[in-house]
Amino acid sequence: MSQSKDGKEQSSRITSGIGRRGFGRSRQGEPVVKPKNFTRTLRRLWLYLNKERKLLMLIFILMLADSLLTLIGPYLIGMSIDAMSASMNMVNLKKLEIIVITLVFVYVLNGFLSFCQGWIMAGVSQQVVTNLRSTLFGKMQKLPIVFFDKHSHGELMSRLSNDIENVSSTISQSTTQLLSGSIAIIGSLIMMIALSPSLTLVSLLTAPLIILLARIIAKKTSKLFKEQQMQLGRLNGHIEETISGIQVVKAFNYEDKVIAEFDEINTKLCDVGLRAQIWSGFLMPLMNVINNIGFALIAIVGGVLAIDNLITVGVIASFLSYSRQFARPLNDIASLFNLLQSGVAGAERVFEILDEPEEAPDRPNAVVLEKAIGDVVFKNVSFGYRADVSVLKNVSFVAKEGSSTALVGPTGAGKTTIVNLVTRFYDVTNGEILLDGRDIKDYTRDSVRRSFGIVLQDAYLFSGTIKENLKYGKPDASDEEMKAAAVMANADAFIARLPEQYDTLLSENGGSLSQGQKQLLAIARVILTKPSILILDEATSSIDTRTELHIQDALLKIMKGRTSFVIAHRLNTIRDADNILVIDHGEIVEKGSHDFLIYKKGVYHGMFFNQFQLEIE
Asked: Largest CB tally within 10 Å, which of 58, 119, 257, 323?
């Protein structure tokens, strides 16, 4: 966390449970999982499936044909048994031959249709999940900064990867089985009634037990699988945070501590996962016991009816097959609860993000800021990250076109909050900010941010080439413009020494580049966009003295003619600023030029000479 964001602002962030990112490092919070309605979640998933309704209709037609063939099979088996039930001299071989050939054809065609269903459904599920993943990632780009302060990076990545993957498995494996199972249950029940209403009543005696057992276990496993997903998100967040800060971990000999924290979360994940698997594992053995009892009852009652010549042996054989087809989908659906509960838990976590409020929309009459002049006025601006805690209190100042305004003050005074407001990462609570004479909210948010060039204390580079990173803010820039920006930022010298120069591939956040080199690239990236207004948040604090001199020279060049806001703790770097605002406890306590504030011998005078004395010592 940059120094400008500690202290009071950090305290309010911790107290509220809502951090703020803006121009500093992330403040990661605990994942919050809110229970959602199971049925509602399934309905929302269906909305994504419904986009593939043509293919789903084809799958449904194939299922109907498949189920019809499945129902024909037991009937033909019963006919073949009845054809052989008399003495061998009475067997109708011609009829038996036709039945057997038909039965083989039915089973072959049945297998082919099942393959087609699975093939098409695999494509449907992948397309649905692709759309859901794209929707989720797009949603994250529209969420306000405060949302990311409440969630760790790893936990969000878990929702994009693990939870989406669970949804994918649920759709691909569960949808066809649920639909085909429902058709099989209805069709088998109709055939059972047609063959023997008495045996149908006997077979249905076990159905309530199966339904009751499934509901009891599903209720228990639903909570466990949701807890499992939450613990998995916590584990991913801990891993991402530890790996990202591995240098700090090692520097403070914190390895044993992070291992202990990992083991604690991992143990909780193991425990809840074990309990979820045990409970879901109870289902199938108990279902098999109930089904075997049902088969035994059917066999006993069927035998009695056959002795009384009320039904034939072939009917009993067919009925047993149908009763198995009736019970098997119930077993399959019950066995899917493991997967279904996990998938729905993942979908709920995805929908939680999709339900998050996005950044406030632009005003209906908002205009595009084509080219900002750079006049910035704060009028009685108050702001708090929480409604009951004010970070800025009635702040007013004017930054004229082309002027440089330095923001100084103790840690947590509200300096970074000011630039967060002027770039509309947050909107003011009270008062207004004027840009070129108009309320900043009268412009579209995107056009306002395009007018700013921001150099942070911690430069962030993306995976890709140096060229791609430099052109990040202006992809259509020519190579000549890019190199000119690098020269102005004094970055061209070290780039020329790299093996592939501007085509050198960087890993995440700059790879093996030094902090100073990454900062030079970040400054060159801003120079290339030619912004109207500059924001420099401790831009040289992580750089050695020699590099700082080069960067100061480059910054003076790009600041010329542009409105600039500079947050600095090294007061000697802002001596030439047109206006210095001394901020303390969210209020401007002094303002003026360096010479004026030194002459005044107030707060700034004390800060400057205390720092100067420390530097001498």
From this structure: 323
Count of domains in the chain? 2
Rounded Cα distance, 165 and 163, in Å: 5
* In a domain? residue 21: no
Our separate counts of H helices and E strands in the chain read: 23, 12
Backbone angle region of 376, left / alpha / beta, with phi > 0 → left and psi within -120 to 50 → alpha: beta
420/218: higher pLDDT = 420
15 domain-assigned: no
CATH number assigned to the domain comprising residue 611: 3.40.50.300
Residue 74, strand partner residues: none
Expressed as residue numbers, the domain containing 482 is 376-616
Do 63 and 116 share a domain, yes or no?
yes
Per DSSP, what are the bridge partners of residue 561?
none
Q: Are 399 and 317 found together in one domain?
A: no
Is residue 25 situated within a structural domain? no
DSSP string, 292-340: HHHHHHHHHHHHHHHHTTSS-HHHHHHHHHHHHHHHHHHHHHHHTHHHH
Q: Per residue in 427-445, pLDDT tens?
A: 888 888 888 888 888 888 8
Instruction: Burial-class residue 520 by CB neighbours within 10 Å (0-12, 13-18, 19+).
Output: buried
Query: Residue 534: helix, strand or coil by DSSP?
Result: strand
Sequence-distant contacts of 472-476: CB under 8 A, at least 24 apart: 472/525, 473/525, 473/526, 473/528, 473/529, 474/528, 474/529
pLDDT at 617 over 60: no
Domain membership of residue 370 (yes or no) is no
Query: Which pLDDT does position 335 carry in this prediction?
Result: 64
What pLDDT is recorded for position 83?
A: 66
Whether residue 248 sits in one domain with residue 113: yes
Which sign, positive or negative, has the C-alpha torsion 8, 10, 13, 15? negative
Sequence-distant (≥ 6) Cβ neighbours of residue 500 within 8 angstroms: 465
346 and 384 in a single domain? The answer is no
> Residue range 246-260: average pLDDT?
75
How crowded is residue 386: how many other Cβ atoms within 10 Å of its Cβ? 13
